[in-house]
Amino acid sequence: MRNLDITTLRSFVAVADHGGVTRAAGFLHLTQSAVSMQLKRLEELLGLELLDRSGRTIALTASGEQLLAYARRMVALNDEVMSKLTDQAYEGEVVLGVPHDIVYPAIPRVLQRFNADFPRVRVQLVSSYSIQLKEMFRRGECDVILTTEASNGDGGETIAELPLRWIGASGGAAWRRRPLPLALGRRCLFRPQVIAALDAAGIPWELSVETENDRTIEATVSADLAVHAMLEGTEAAHLEKIDSGGALPELPAHMINLYGGDMGRGPVVEALADLVRQNFRMLRGGPLRAIAS
Known about the structure:
This protein has helices at residues 6-17, 21-28, 32-46, 62-85, 106-117, 130-138, 191-201, 214-222, 267-281, and strands at 51-52, 59-60, 92-99, 121-128, 144-149, 157-169, 180-185, 205-211, 228-231, 239-241, 253-259. By secondary structure, it is α/β, with parallel strands linked by helices. Strands 3, 4, 5, 6, 9, 10 and 11 form a seven-stranded mixed sheet that branches. Helix 5 links the parallel strand 3 and strand 4 (121-128). Keywords: DNA-binding, Transcription, Transcription regulation. InterPro entries: LTTR (IPR050176), LysR_HTH_N (IPR000847), LysR_subst-bd (IPR005119), WH-like_DNA-bd_sf (IPR036388), WH_DNA-bd_sf (IPR036390). This is Transcriptional regulator, LysR family.
């Protein structure tokens, strides 16, 4: 009877989730060679090739895809058992504030891992605009917040810098219309840059949707009634980056800043801030099924 090792499975899942061996090693606090050795042992144990290394990037084979679903469940079950049956030193609540448009895809991974590490600590997720989140942080209503800003805010730590991209419906044509129909939030920090870029390029535009509800914007863009601007890698799966061939102007990069992650705020808050850093720094790691080594 052969037994699968949880540590090895955890490394396999990390490679799939975090963009390759190098990033997985950083996430697991292991050397790259140690992760590579674990993957090799797993392939030898199963007698299967789990990774296709023939191209410039590493991709999961069909067997790797099949194993990934099982591996996730086994690692999650292991973590649940350990958290339920072992004594935990920390309990309470921590408040994390995140702008609406960067909750996905990183924050669910942060919450999942934090819950495994601190099962008795409740994370209250507050989603709002960067300006409001900074005010809440100033008043002590949030322990850790993220913001999207054009520069490094006073007291903040820049953990990622992502380009702003034009986003539209899959296969849509709204971006070809003039005036260009826009769907923008009333208090969106990207709004001034988007309008300034269009004005500088001499492209007429109109606000098709002006709202404070992100779901309204998403529905309008999905229906190909307008275009939107989002940080690269944060768009929903049913939307896509617009390849306008130069018909739309380039948009500036924005910074994702972390507030409250400085040392001295306690191990729970520091652990949460560290998970946020790790996941947002890997945000541009590429698709999970075509991962860099």
